[in-house]
Design brief:
The structure holds two protein chains of two kinds.
Chain A: E1 4-6, E2 11-14, E3 19-25, E4 32-38, E5 45-50, E6 54-58, E7 61-66, E8 71-76, E9 85-92, E10 99-100, E11 104-109
Parallel strand pairs in A: 2-11
Antiparallel strand pairs in A: 1-3, 3-8, 4-5, 4-9, 6-7, 7-8, 9-10, 9-11
Chain B: E1 4-7, E2 10-13, E3 19-25, E4 31-37, E5 43-49, E6 56-57, E7 68-72, E8 75-80, E9 89-96, E10 102-104, E11 108-112
Parallel strand pairs in B: 2-11
Antiparallel strand pairs in B: 1-3, 3-8, 4-5, 4-9, 5-6, 7-8, 9-10, 9-11
Classes of the chains: A mainly beta, B mainly beta.
């Protein structure tokens, strides 16, 4: 079992729809959870982080964390073609290295 | 957020040679990491660059192949030694501030011929 697993893609949604990206992790000691967006040929950039159970909203993005289920998700509302990218879930136990999932490629069709 | 300058941005190298990649940060950071990302795949951590001491390598990566230096809190280098075509990949420098989110350099696209 991988330490961080993301739902297999690619994921395709129409413009204006909600895109839902999911991630599960195996280390119950994980404390910090991150979502990165990576455009083709570019390096990853942080879009959301969450530390506590529940929802965290930032503009069109909502991160959801459920530590009991070891599950973290990212919702993108009103999806735009510019959201088309690979989304990486990352998990950290404490200070130190992050463990990344394999990523989910999202395509938003106009 | 930290501003990271990584160079070279790309290179084409002959097999058997070595390439050194530099990572410069505009502020002092606690943690610096080196990742590899092969086409269509996620990030694989090579090692944690420790300031003033030997790097901590992940399983499958060794110092003889990927020597790392970190002379201070703002700079690190990764050398890919005795390269083969299998080393063709994107290499990424990453830093963390306040023990939270990671920031990435622009990456180095390496092709070994």
């Amino acid at each position: 079992q991988k330490e961080v697993e993301q739902n297999s893609g690619p994921l395709s949604v129409p413009e204006g729809a909600i895109a839902s990206l999911n991630c599960t992790y195996s280390d119950r000691g994980s404390q910090s959870f991150f979502w990165y967006r990576q455009y083709s040929g570019k390096s990853p950039e942080l879009i959301m982080f969450i530390y506590s159970n529940g929802d965290k909203e930032d503009g069109r993005f909502t991160a959801q964390l459920n530590k009991a289920s070891q599950y973290v998700s990212l919702l993108i509302r009103d999806s735009q073609p510019s959201d088309s990218a690979t989304y990486l879930c990352a998990v950290k136990a404490n200070a130190g290295k992050s463990t990344f999932g394999d990523g989910t490629t999202l395509t938003v069709k106009p | 957020s930290a501003v990271i300058s990584q160079k070279p941005s790309r290179d084409i190298c002959q097999r058997g040679t070595s390439l050194t990649i530099q990572c410069q940060v505009d502020s002092q950071v606690t943690m610096m990491f080196w990742y590899r990302q092969q086409p269509g795949q996620s990030l694989t951590l090579i090692a944690t660059a420790n300031q003033g001491s030997e790097a901590t390598y992940e399983s499958g990566f060794v110092i003889d192949k990927f020597p790392i230096s970190r002379p201070n809190l703002t700079f690190s280098t990764l050398t890919v030694s005795n390269m083969s075509p299998e080393d063709s990949s994107i290499y990424l420098c990453s830093v963390e501030q306040r023990s939270t989110e990671a920031f990435f350099g622009q990456g180095t696209r390496l092709t070994v011929v």
